[in-house]
Amino acid sequence: MFFWLRKCLLAFLLGVLTFTPWEILMVRAEIVSFSRPEFLGIPRWMPIVFGAGTVALVVLFYLLERLFHFQASYQGGKLVLEYLMIAVVYTAVLFFKVSPYLLSLGLFTLLVLRLILFHRPWDLTVFLIGACFGPTLELFLTNLHLYSFTEPDFLGMPYWLPLLWGTVSLAMRRLTWVLIPTPAEPGRPGPWEDKP
After folding, report:
1. Across all residues in the chain, what is the average pLDDT?
2. Confidence of residue 64 (pLDDT cuts 50, 70, 90)
3. Quick check: 163 and 108 in contact, CB under 8 A?
């Protein structure tokens, strides 16, 4: 029980520290606006949502990995590349917000390159889970008038939003491998051990 509490707390803190600064930058760049901004343009509950969302994704992906008996060898140091990918995607959103078609094409190209060069089994499924679930959640929250996108393209959301969510889901899957490695089969290395 203590193991799970510790891992969930770590995932919560990583979610808060990773996504809160980007959301503040999105508000400063006038991509999103909140109905009741309280702290640097965002409401106080937003970091809690980021932390809880990260915990939920880590637990979901852990359960999916166990369900499909997937084993992955992944070094914790490679997690820096995942955070770099998130930074590239958010930076692209900040710089190309006025060109949603160009931004969507760029993010799609980046995603295709990632899936070709750094592919793991079920990555496309994980991307689709994020690309479908994330915007659906955002649609629900925007319909509650908690926040809105300043330049919506479709159903009150920008075109690039599913690509952003899908990319973040891929990164969260790899974070799961580092935080909660699945047990290895006898005679095989664990998911975060180096293969010989």
Report:
1. 84
2. confident
3. yes
CA distance linking residue 63 with residue 67, whole number of Å: 6
Question: pLDDT (tens digit, 9 = 90+) per residue, 138-171?
Answer: 889 888 888 888 888 788 888 899 999 999 998 8
47, 50, 56, 62: CA torsion to nearest 10: -120
3-state SS track over 22-71: HHHHHHHCCCEEECCCCECCECCCHHHHHHHHHHHHHHHHHHHHHHCCCC
User: Residue 2 — pLDDT band, cuts 50, 70, 90?
Assistant: confident
Contacts of 195 (CB under 8 A, 6+ apart): 73, 189
What share of the chain has pLDDT > 70, as a percent? 90
The residue to which tokens 């203590």 are assigned: 2
